[in-house]
Every structure is written in structure tokens, then in C-alpha cells.
Amino acid sequence: MALSHFPEIHQVLLESTHEVLGKGQSGFLQPEEKTFLTELERLLTEQFGTLTGRGMAIRMGRSGFQTGLRRWGETLGFYSLDFRLMPFPRRVRFGLDQIARFLEERTSLQINIHEEPEHWIVEIRQMPSCTRSTSPVLCSLLMGMFQEFMQWQGSGRFFPVRETQCVAQGSPCCRFEISRKPLE
Ligand SMILES: [Zn+2]
Hints:
single chain; 4-vinyl reductase 4VR domain-containing protein; 14% strand; NO_sig/Golgi_transp_ligand-bd; MetOD1; alpha+beta
């Protein structure tokens, strides 16, 4: 599955992989966009097993968010005074909307965000032209990205993120619930 039509996003993914796995391991991966996620999934599962492999993909998503923040944070308005002065819930919503638009413009993902009393909800679909099923490794990368975004916004506090529906399990979309309350 090709996630990105935008080489810079693919580059961030590659860098995150190198950072978490070390070049010795990740050097086995083909750097081409088309097969990258499938190969990453296979490598992680073979080397570390499903559970640890997912944990590593989450770390890659976290690292990818930090890299993306350094590269595009300014463009996305994340360093503006207006943004920093917003109340926390508005700032989170604005940030999630900005990330969603950014990814929609550059990948095959369609992202919908809405709010519930206890959670921010992020629903992610592939564009109809990309009918092949999503890869669980992508879900873990996205989960890590949301975790890191929330920790950054919440001054280091940890906000639980759960994936409650997944395309890989037959659901129409991948649905992430981001808790409005940090862990004590
Ligand atoms: Zn999923």
C-alpha cells in the first residue's frame, strides 16, 4: 500500500524507522514508498513478534511527529502566539484539524475529527481509489503520532489513545479515541 504521494512524508517515515530500529535493522527495508509499510510490518513481526513490533511502530510514530513538528510546525501555525494562547481543548482540536488537513493533502488518507464528552474522535479512511486494506503498522504509526501530539500539547502528561475500530478488522474506518483526561 502506498501511503504517501509526497516524498517528504515518506522521508520522515524512513528517518523514524532508522531512529527506532538503528540502521543495522532498518537497512534491510526497501526505501520505495510502494512496499515500505508492508516490509516494515513484516520486519517488525518477524524480528520482534506482533506485540513488541506494534510498540516499536508506536515509537516510530512518536518520533515521526517530532520530526514533522520541526519541519512543518511553523507552517501549520503551531508556534504562533494565537495558537499558544488558545485554551487547551481548542488548541487540541485546532492541532488535530491542522494535522488532518496536512495529511489529507499529501497522502491517500481521509480524516474526520469530531468531539465527544470524554474523547476527541479521529476517523481515518483510505481514498476510494486505494481499495487495498490498510496495514496494522500504519495504525500503530498513527497512534504514536497522536500520543506524541497530545503529550506535547499537554506539557508532558500522557493522554491515552485507543483504536476502537480498524479497517484491518473489517470496519469501514480506523477510529481512534483520544482521552480528554490525562493519566494521573
Ligand atoms: Zn486501523
